[in-house]
Design brief:
45% strand, globular, mainly beta
C-alpha cells in the first residue's frame, strides 16, 4: 500500500472510530492555550457544467489537491493534548497508534508530523514509529508545505505546497518514484473564480489550461519536447 492510500485508509478508520463513540480522546480535557488549526486548504475547479474531457481532467486534479485536506479531517473531531510545547492528536486504532503532532516555531509557524506505530488492522503491515507525513504551515494557515513518504521508508512519494498572496491561492503537487522526481501539477485560484492549471512530466510542461470567472476556458497540450500538439476551448 503506498502512502497516499495508506493515509486515506487512516482517515477512514479514524473517522469510523470517532463516530462509533469508541475514541477516548473525545472526553479528554484540553490544555491551557489554543491548539493550532488542523491544516485545511480548498481549491476550486472551473465553475461549469461542461462535459469537455479537459474540464473533467482539471476537476480530477483539483480533487487530488483537495484530498490532501481529507488526510487531516478525522483529527478535527479529537481534542489535542500537550506534550512539552507540542500539541498531539492521538488515535488508538486497535493495534495501530496514529499520532499527529504540531510543534510551534518562533515565527508562529508549526511543524507537523504524522507517525504510525504498531500493526495496521486492515492489512497486517507493521510500523515502527514510521513518519508517514510531515511539513509546515504558516501561523495563519495560508501557506503550507508537506511531504509524504513511501510506506515504511524515508524516500519521498509526494510533496504538496500551497501559498496565498493577495488572495491568490497557488498549489503545487509533486510526485516521485523511488525518490526520483517524475512530475508536478500547479493549480492557481484567483479571488474572482478564474484560474489555471499546468501539468509537467519531469521538467516539461505537457498541459496547460486557463479559465475565467464564468467557468469557460481554453487548454493547450504539448509533447515531451515542448512542442504544441493540440488546443481547444470549453464553455
Amino acid at each position: 500500500m503506498n502512502s497516499r492510500f495508506l493515509l486515506f485508509a487512516i482517515a477512514v478508520l479514524a473517522f469510523a472510530f470517532v463516530i462509533s463513540g469508541c475514541s477516548k480522546s473525545d472526553s479528554s480535557t484540553g490544555p491551557e492555550g489554543t491548539a493550532p488549526t488542523i491544516p485545511t486548504v480548498l481549491f476550486k475547479a472551473p465553475n461549469t457544467t461542461s462535459t469537455d474531457p479537459n474540464v473533467q481532467e482539471i476537476k480530477t486534479y483539483v480533487s487530488v489537491f483537495n484530498s490532501f485536506t481529507t488526510y487531516f479531517a478525522p483529527f478535527q473531531a479529537v481534542k489535542p493534548t500537550q506534550s512539552g510545547n507540542a500539541w498531539q492528536w492521538n488515535y488508538p486504532l486497535a493495534t495501530l497508534a496514529v499520532v499527529l503532532t504540531a510543534t510551534p516555531q518562533s515565527d508562529g509557524s508549526f511543524v507537523w508530523k504524522l507517525v504510525l506505530n504498531g500493526v495496521d488492522p486492515s492489512d497486517g503491515v507493521s510500523y515502527n514509529n514510521w513518519t508517514a507525513l510531515q511539513g509546515t504551515t504558516s501561523s495563519d494557515g495560508k501557506n503550507g508545505s508537506f511531504k509524504a513518504y513511501e510506506e515504511n521508508k524515508t524516500t519521498f512519494e509526494l510533496e504538496f505546497d500551497w501559498t496565498t498572496v493577495n488572495s491568490v491561492l497557488t498549489g503545487t503537487h509533486k510526485e516521485y518514484d523511488n525518490g526520483a522526481f517524475t512530475g508536478r501539477n500547479v493549480i492557481v485560484n484567483n479571488p474572482d473564480n478564474s484560474g489555471s492549471m499546468m501539468l509537467y512530466t519531469g521538467a516539461v510542461n505537457t498541459k496547460k489550461a486557463t479559465w475565467i470567472a464564468n467557468g469557460s476556458g481554453q487548454w493547450w497540450s504539448y509533447n515531451s519536447s515542448g512542442a504544441q500538439t493540440g488546443t481547444g476551448t470549453w464553455n
